[in-house]
Each structure stands twice: as structure tokens, then as C-alpha cells.
Design goal:
The protein has a domain of 149 residues: Pathogenesis-related Protein p14a (3-Layer(aba) Sandwich). Helix content is 47%, strand content 12%. About 20% of the residues have low confidence.
């Protein structure tokens, strides 16, 4: 039994649609490959040109030697710069042309930022710097405490709720750990940023008296009796929120013990 004209037309339509879809996908794939190949080809050509270039000029030799005290120019971000040589201008043009590819790589891998070990180190450094100002002993990082903090940071990242963990989650058998937490929307949460936010609460704290809810992050951070911390950080699934958690052992914010554990800054004592 032969095919009708309508059936033959549908077959041709299906075949044409499949061919067109495959052709478009192939063109996109070829375009990406050409772009990546062009990027590396430009790097290769620039390297070859630098190899066969004429001897460096006096300005280029000056640019290569170490900075002198009179040449250093400090920007807001603390970086040092000097007038660029011809070679640095060449690399600037290359980087400008390949900016799109670099942007795509960064967008594909949003986790390329401060990892959690670095986050813990920067948090510890910031906390101890402020504790010195309040004549409190420096803290140390404890791996077991970090596991506790990390679990709760991941829990908040899943639920989107910024709240204290249940007491049983941070109970070591002898006492419940102290806990501070913070969150950041659409910008990476760093250890220094988190600690500075807590320390701003000190402007509201009345030294010599028990603390309040709106100053408990500050008082826990500089609590004299605390000796170790655990640090955790997690990011929400949509990538918009960062959550940070620090647990303290021994805990702070104990009623009637503030005057013996939270001291005025050394310059105001």
C-alpha cells in the first residue's frame, strides 16, 4: 500500500526540520571552536613576536627593574603600578580581545573565588585583630568545630532561612557552643566583611552591662573566655546568597559574666 501525498509531505517536513536543526547545532559548535582556536593562536603569535622583538628600550628596561620608593603609586585597592611598557600594552590589547571568552569561563565556574579554607583563615585573622583591640586572647581554629559550622551554613543555604542552629546540633556534651552567622546577597561573603559587620554592633553595646540581641555577635566575637572557633560557609543553589557561620568554644553571651569578658578597646580603657 503506497503513501499518500500528505504522508509524503510530512516525511519531507520532518526530514527538513531534522536537517536544519543539526546544521544549526553544527554551526554553533564550529563557531565556538573557531573562537577558542583564535584565542590561543593570538597568544602564540604574541609570544613569537615577543621572542623575535628588537632589544628592549631604556623605558622597557626601566619597567622591568624593581620598584623604587619614588615610583610606587598606591591605588585604593593597594595595588602598585608604573607606566606600562610596549609589551604590557600588547597584552592589554590581547586581553581586551579575549575578554568575552574569559567572561564566559568565569560565568560557567562561579565557584572560582575564596575557598572555605581561605575563608576560615581570613575570618580567624579578622576576629583576632579585633580581639587584640579589646585585650582578649587570640582564637584558634578547630576542625571538629568547623564541621559543625559547615553543616549549618549548608542548611541555611538550602532553606534560605537566616537563623541559629538548634542547640542539639552544637552541643559537645558539656555545653552548647556560641554561634554567630551572617549572609550576603549577590556578592561574595568574605571573612573580613562578615567580622566587620559584627563589630559594628559594638557601637550599641553598653560596656559593663549584659548584652542585648542586637549586640550578641559583637560580644561573642570579643568574649574573653572563648578559645577556639569553627568556621563554615555555603552558597545557595541559585548562586545569589552566601551564608557564613562561626561557632565558639567556650561560648559567650552568658548572663552576669559580661563585665568579666567584654572589655573596652585598649585605647579607651
Amino acid at each position: 500500500m503506497g503513501l499518500t501525498g500528505t504522508q509524503i509531505g510530512l516525511c519531507f517536513q520532518s526530514y527538513w526540520y531534522m536537517w536544519l536543526t543539526n546544521a544549526l547545532a553544527g554551526l554553533v559548535f564550529i563557531g565556538i571552536n573557531i573562537g577558542v582556536a583564535g584565542f590561543f593562536l593570538k597568544k602564540f603569535i604574541a609570544k613569537k613576536q615577543a621572542h623575535y622583538a628588537e632589544p628592549p628600550t631604556v623605558q622597557e628596561e626601566t619597567a622591568r627593574r624593581p620598584f623604587s620608593a619614588s615610583e610606587i603609586s598606591t591605588h585604593d585597592d593597594g595595588a602598585m603600578s608604573r607606566a606600562s611598557s610596549r609589551k604590557s600594552r600588547t597584552y592589554f590589547i590581547l586581553n581586551k580581545q579575549s575578554f568575552f571568552y574569559i567572561f564566559c569561563i568565569v560565568a560557567m565556574y562561579p565557584g572560582a573565588s575564596e575557598d572555605n579554607d581561605e575563608f576560615a583563615e581570613s575570618t580567624l585573622k579578622a576576629l583576632n585583630a579585633f580581639r587584640r583591640r579589646h585585650t582578649a586572647e587570640p582564637l584558634g581554629v578547630n576542625e571538629q568545630l568547623c564541621e559543625i559550622a559547615q553543616r549549618w551554613a549548608e542548611q541555611m543555604a538550602r532553606t534560605g532561612k537566616l537563623e541559629h542552629s538548634p542547640a542539639e546540633m552544637r552541643n559537645l556534651g558539656r555545653q552548647t557552643l556560641g554561634e554567630n552567622f551572617s549572609a550576603s546577597f549577590q556578592s561574595e561573603l568574605t571573612g573580613e566583611k562578615m567580622v566587620r559587620k559584627w563589630m559594628k554592633e559594638g557601637k550599641r553595646y553598653m560596656f559593663g552591662f549584659d548584652g542585648r540581641k542586637d549586640t550578641e555577635n559583637f560580644t561573642q566575637s570579643v568574649w574573653q573566655a572563648s578559645r577556639e572557633i569553627g568556621v563554615g560557609r555555603a552558597r545557595s543553589e541559585d548562586g545569589n546568597w552566601w551564608y557564613g557561620v562561626v561557632v565558639f568554644d567556650p561560648p559567650g553571651n552568658i548572663p552576669n559574666q559580661y563585665s568579666n569578658n567584654v572589655f573596652l578597646p585598649a585605647d579607651k580603657a
